[in-house]
Amino acid sequence: MDIINDLIPMLFLGLGNDLLVTVISIILPLNIGIAFTILMHFTRKSPLPKVFRFLSILTEGLAPTVILMLFYFCVFVTGSALIPAIVALSICFMGYMIFRYDGRDSLVKNIVVNGIGLVVDMLKWCFCILGYVGIMNIVKAANTYAYRTYSFFLPILLLLIISFIILAVLYIIRQICKEFMK
Q1: Within 13 Å, how many C-alpha atoms sit on residue 62's CB side?
Q2: Residue 20 maps to which CATH number?
Q3: How far apart are CA 89 and CA 121, in angstroms?
Q4: What per-residue confidence (pLDDT) applies to 100?
């Protein structure tokens, strides 16, 4: 039973790092998205929304992993891996809400649905691609558990279940908001 007691805190430390990167990274894109959504809503008849969409395509086209590697190896050479991950995600998701703005929907619906979508997509990137930030703790926990029990499956399955539940709940909330908000 001591093995499980060692495994759970190590897995949650890696997952906690991913969630920390997501929460901090979302501040700038969410605020920019809300500001531009409001601006686009009140200037629907002008050509300004088309200009904003074009600019958002530039940030949508950036690959977070490439930007992450650029910042990790070239800009933030020393220090924690958390800072490059936060900067890379913030830059790559800056145009997320602007690109998904729908002029037929209300201002509140655009902000809520696209804001939740931003959180869900950023969490997916953290769990899947940028998860190396917390991977050292996860690998350490998995190796410790595996060497003691000869089972490599449980740590990976536990992490998969936790991340799936978080993403599924957020996706369901997003769908409910999309359907019921006018």
Answers
A1: 20
A2: 1.10.3720.10
A3: 11
A4: 86
